[in-house]
Amino acid sequence: MTERPVIRSGPVIRSGEGKLGVLIPGFGAVATTMVAGVESVRRGLAKPIGSLTQMNTIRLGKRTDGRSPLINDFLPLAQLDQLVFGAWDPFPDDGYESAVKAGVLTPQHLDPLRDFLRSIRPMPAVFDREYVRRLDGPNVKSGKNKLELAEQLRADIRRFAKENGCTRMVMVWCGSTEIFLRPGPQHASLKDFEVAMKANDPAIAPSMIYAYAAIKEGVPYANGAPNLSGDIPALESLAKESGVPIAGKDFKTGQTLMKTILAPGLKARMIGIAGWFSTNILGNRDGAVLDDPDSFKTKEESKLSVLEHILQPQMYPELYGKLYHKVRIEYYPPRGDNKEGWDNIDIVGWMGYPMQIKVDFLCRDSILAAPIVLDLALFLDLAHRAGMKGIQEWLSFYFKSPQTAPGLYPEHDLFIQQKKLKNTLRWLGGEEPLTHLGLEYYEGE
Fold first, then answer.
1. How would residue 8 be classed by pLDDT, with cut points 50, 70 and 90?
2. For a Cys staple, 146 with which of 168, 197, 243, 335, CB 3.0–4.6 Å?
3. CATH code where residue 397 lies
4. Long-range pairs of 406-411 with CB within 8 A, sequence gap ≥ 24
5. pLDDT tens digits for 225-276?
């Protein structure tokens, strides 16, 4: 049996030495939980559970080779002690005050970090209640138009880098869900976009202004909400032309995470699905924002698209062609950040016999989202240093509504997403991608 050649042709990756600035629009529950968690890990007080960059291994070569290093050992990722954090928020609360109000972490975990968290004070935000109607705060920028606001953000980015000695930066949107918007002529080209910003066009939402500012400053950008943000032609083109990686959108945490685990399994066994009813209760700031119908519409579009793309009803009409899918989100203040998601799944088996699956997921939304923010920051920084630019589809693993190149449908199957992510990491490290074909049994025949 002849040995197959080993491919080792990954890209040249620039040095990852120096400080990495992690810039966060939205310094609420998710962001403060992530920042507090990173500092706890740095002090040896906690484990980074849920983070692939910190805890996951990656198999290299054949199973018989026995090579499965940690991802963090295999690739030159930024290390946690290199990270410095900056944020914008319409509320002026420092990191400790914001974390206490969010109610995610207990005093047992927050109090040892009090001085560190207090040292992070959010910069005045680009914020407009027209896009997030259930929030308001005094820590807000003012300017004669949206282009001027973008320039203020760009100045913030440059100042933060200088004051903190950062060699490079990334930005991850952790702000609230904005009202539902569709792409329009204002988003078609960079020229159209900048004209619209200068005219204060309502089609330009605050999250777009952050994305624009980041890309213009050469800072990779990820969108953790379902907003129409960096996923418009103007900014996608700008990112590609500027050599900046971007990714989004909407962190895949609770109920949708379960859907992307369960639905591929049912489809793999060719089990039919007649209906999938999902409802959520949560009481944090995100719940209050989503109590507004226009913000809920943005989230609903993100959550509803998952099953259709996984199940492919056009290919399997007898199994999924009549699927009834409904999603509800209810604001319930007593629950706080501890979201509860109920799913009723009506499935169909052999000879058309009906069955049911019931799921009750009592999750902690920010606890699930925090490691996603960390991983995206580290992976986007790596991608940037490797010369990758534009939409990073290999990071779809982390999103409910993955951003794709024009003309391509998004991949929602968690396990296909994981294969794409890890094969991209293998390529970055100069290793051969895994296909699981087992060709060694057929070579020479």
1. low
2. 197
3. 3.40.50.720
4. 406/233, 406/236, 409/309, 410/305, 410/309, 411/309
5. 999 999 999 999 999 999 999 999 999 998 999 999 999 999 999 999 999 9
**pLDDT for 439:** 54
353 shares a domain with 322: yes
Are 262 and 239 within one domain? no
Which strands make up the sheet holding 324-331, listed edge to edge?
324-331, 272-282, 340-348, 354-362
Count how many domains the chain has: 2
Q: How many residues does the chain have?
A: 445
* Residue span of the structural domain in which 310 resides: 255-362
The pLDDT tens digits for 303-325 are 677 898 999 999 999 999 999 99
Q: Same structural domain for residues 109 and 207?
A: yes
